[in-house]
């Protein structure tokens, strides 16, 4: 027995050499290059679509948000593959290669002249890209969206996997890790909207897309080289299958009366061992209709259970956890809808304004997002180094405030951002009218582009609170065997937010059109539009959304898990405690 205990300890010591901070450069390299590629193109994509492919503004805006929506929906596929079959490392590796192929296609479409329409001979003599040229663009975008679907949900969860919560030498606070992750991501976005956008506007789209393509190739090599250092957690089987099994079992037993004591519900530690390494989920009294899936009847073989008829309490609580997260997930949609306007109409505003820093140099319109990312990074740094310490003294919480409170603050700031954006648009149009430029959409209005800084900065601050809190919420509150799937939910909220933006733009453009040709969102001349009304519509929707969120946050119950107490573990008593992850 003594030799076995020594071997177990030795094995545990060896295991601690895997993972930890040493793996972060390899993992973050992949995330940095993916963001360089997608943001470097996305930040200036509307310029590419309107100036290179000659699309109308509204069509280009909808193309951009549709692409963003699709790229944020595919993480469900990547998460399913990672959690069910091949694990996170191989999912990220294969997805990165697919992403690389898509980036090569985009670069070729920008380099080869026959993949673009001819240059305009005049303002009114532009030929829109034909179906073949658009098809090549969309095929390349689809490949990058599929690649992103494997990278986004897995790379953040894979990074968190490198810290063993049960090992004091590798333990790290989850909220700190997500701050690091988002800070690194934001820094790469900052480079994308400055250096890459400048290259695209002043050197050429070939180099502007070629550089992130090369960077992506190097990141794949770096990520694979780190393989021996990583902690690799085996996939625990399809989470969707388990959720479906619980649903079917509960339906089959819907006519049964509920047991008087929850302790009589089915438990099987051996069956749940692979999906409850950090502790079992404990029974909660709400959604009792699902508890019927864990009622033991004479027909059930508890030693070799048919999971389509009977499930453990842990598996039932997995489904409850996912259902509980749904309303909070929905609350993040409209923030993304508001944020999406920076890459569409806010960028068009910037293109019409005075962007000169000196007589010979002007800020690329696509680089205005730099104010978003600088504010976001600054907010994260101040939050991590100052606000948390102050809040900790007041609340007693290690992270200062809960992630639910952090998300609420972000939603309020986002409301202010779109409200301000509407007033700035009024100021821009007043300047256009004062200088007789209302009917000259391609002329520069003599008003500084820095009037747009408040709305860009407020969106960055909102993201530092809401998006990080949202991401941490999904990872923390999801069952441990579904963490890739949970982080995919974060990206699906971004997806739906982009699609809602597309829907809003389409409906507003359609139903505000008048016989005289006026429109809130005109195709060519924003000076004749009512963009401020569109911003205020989004503001109003966000106010309703915030009220909805407050109600959901008050109703939400944190998942309780059963973990071994440290003091009892040392004495071998095997005691347990409840851990509500806040």
From TrEMBL:
Q: Which UniProt keywords apply?
A: Membrane, Transmembrane, Transmembrane helix
What's the protein's topology in the membrane? Multi-pass membrane protein
Q: Does the keyword Transmembrane helix apply?
A: yes
Q: What is its main location?
A: membrane
Fetch the CDD domains from UniProt.
MFS_NPF3
Q: Name one GO cellular component term.
A: membrane
Q: Does the keyword RNA-binding apply?
A: no
Which chain regions cross the lipid bilayer?
A: 21-43, 63-82, 89-115, 135-159, 180-199, 205-230, 322-341, 361-383, 403-424, 444-468, 489-513, 533-551
* Gene3D superfamilies to which the protein is assigned, alphabetical: MFS general substrate transporter like domains
Family according to the record: Belongs to the major facilitator superfamily. Proton-dependent oligopeptide transporter (POT/PTR) (TC 2.A.17) family.
The name this protein goes by in its record: Uncharacterized protein
Recorded source organism is Ficus carica
